[in-house]
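Example with several molecule types.
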Amino acid sequence: MIFIPLIALFVGIALGLLFNQPLPGIAGTYLALACVAGLDSVLGGVRSALESKFDSEILVTGFVSNTLIAFGLGYLGDQIGLNLFLASALVLGGRIFTNLSVIRRYGITRLRDARARREMLNQDAAPGPKP
Amino acid sequence: MNPFATRSTGYQWIWPTSAMALVLGVMLTMAWITAQTRQSRFSELPTDVRDRLNAASLDFQGEYFKVQQELKSLRESFGELREENTKLQNAVADQTKSSQLLNESLQEVKTFAGLTEVEGPGLMITLRDAKNAPEGLGDYAVIHDIDVLKVVNELWNAGAEAISVNDLRVGPHTNFRCVGSVILVDRVQIASPVVIRAIGDPKTLEGALDLPLGVLAEIRQVEPTMVKLERVENMRMPGFAGSTKPKFMKAVPPKG
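Resulting structure tokens for the full complex:
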């Protein structure tokens, strides 16, 4: 069940390869930023699921607004001669790191819990002197 | 407690996240393909052109190259038509003495305006982008429109009678522009090496360009091989191939 997002990602990649259409001009540059925003959103979704506070509306609006803000900043940067793409990439990249580290911590905690439970069960099952 | 947190149980997060992952996959591949396409198209260009183009503008450049090719062929036919015009004028002038005189002065004016093919001694200047420019001098290592403009101006000043840039004759309306990182001569694209040829006294022309702190001194400072001067005994250059039809101006008839 938890592999479905991963499968969906590969299906998406296959669709993109099938479509095989490069974007013209400046849209291509903006698309790269949208990719970073999308990666951040997906990881954020997984993270919130692990934290048991998943909300699909927040996920979708977060993705759309992040992408739009990144585009807007990039456009503004182009206008005033400052590379604000970098600001968006930096913030979104930082969030990706944070999300991944939270997911890692959850995974490790879950593993440790499982191990501890197994040990306790073994202790219960082990024949020993009864008090 | 976090008031915004809503408890959810089970796997309800899977489908929205999966949908987003699908979109992400498509976008990633498209971004990758876009970057790949640009890179591959970019690497097929010759080095000197590649230096002048920035990868993101290539898609527009493709269209532009097509129009440029069309412009080039039109200019060629323009030159042929003008030559034919001269022939016809000569044929008409053969008939009477007065028309012969009239034609002589007409041809003189045409030569002065640079509309005819001419030949004579002169100087050939080759400007090319620096091959091993010192670090951090990127912008100075490239020949710009202003360099061409300065050289042409200096050549006129030194008494040049006819000038051509990469076999494009410099006429009365000729302009040098820089669009993106390509030099335009009368809206025709040229790239390094830029060959400027001038008909005039070779010695005087060379002296004018070789002046200390002159127009070429700055370029030579970056790399001496960017500039090459050659005296030529005799060379031909084509006539100006642009339009000469005025749109707004009218000649004022002489008084009296």
